[in-house]
Structures are given as C-alpha cells and as structure tokens.
Amino acid sequence: MAARLAVLCAIALVSGLGSAFLAIDKGGRFDALTLGVWEARPTEGTREADPYSAAMHARTGRVPLANGEGLIFLARTDSTGADLSPRCEYVIEGQAAPARLWTLTALDDDLKLVETVTPRPGLNSRQMLRRPDGSFRITAAAEARAGNWLATTRDAGGLVFALRLYDTPLTTGTGVANVPMPEIRREGCR
C-alpha cells in the first residue's frame, strides 16, 4: 500500500512539475493575434499579460516590447503549414503590416538569434528593395543571395522568423482584419 502511494505521489509530482515547466517554457497561447502564419501576443509587456507569458519572460530574461512600442510576430511554419527547417531556403514575399519601422530576423526554436556567416543579424524596412507597389521579396538562406537576403544557418536547432513592427497601429487593436502580412514559401532543402 505504501509503495503504491509513493508511486502515485511520484507520478503526480512529475506530471505537475512537467506541465508547469512546459507552460512556462513555451509561454501561454492566450490572447494571440494570428495573421496568416504570423502570430503575436499583443498583451505581452502590458499589465494584462497572462501569467504564463509573464513567467516565461521572467525565466528567460527576454523583454517584450511594451504596449505602444511595437509588436513582434513569429512564424514557425510556411504558408502551407509545414514547419520551418534550417536546412531549407524560403522566400518571404508580400507586404508587411503598417509600421514606422520593421525588422525581420531568423531565430532558433529557443527564440535566440541564429549564428550566421554575416555580422548583420537581420533586415529592416529602411534597407529593403521594393517593387513599385510597395511589396518585397526576401530570400532566407544560409548562402548569400542577390537582392533582399536574410541570412540563416543549417546548424540551428529549428527555425523561426521574427517580424518586429515598431510604432504600429496594431498595438491599439484597430484595423487588424485586413492587415497585409508576407507569405512564406519553401524553395528547396538540402
């Protein structure tokens, strides 16, 4: 009887601690704003932040953009729903949501910048080559490409694209229904 009780207590302890760790490690999915494959959490960095994302930021030391500063959108899949892979090349094409400035970076699954062959960690809207209609085409690859190139690496533990919008009207919650966001298309893998 005592052995069964000890086993049940051990299972309960491992399950409880494990689920708490996963909830804090990945952050809450509460109040998510999804536009295509891009997902943001507008309440991060505010007093309305859910307790899981607040605990995740406290544990990791990452500081979210405050309300009114901007918004970060993360993409973990391409436009077909396939997980992003560091061994693949992607085209990120279209238009970004309205913002005074935006940046695009490649991260690993732990949301850390990937180490690349270039000292430039990402792209920003001020250095972007654009088409006459304002749209752009970015190639995300480990090797340099002509035009707008976002450096990635094949050695990363996963791949996540982070699109940070600074001084955007999306932080006020207005006009999110028809906001343009770029599509992500896989071009090939090695």
TrEMBL record:
Signal peptide: 1-20
Transmembrane spans: none
Keywords: Signal
Record bears the keyword Phosphoprotein: no
InterPro entries in the record: DUF1214, DUF1214_C_sf, UCP009471
DUF1214 domain: residues covered: 70-168
A matching Pfam family: DUF1214
Domain of life of the organism encoding this protein: Bacteria
Protein name: DUF1214 domain-containing protein
Organism from which the protein derives: Stappia taiwanensis
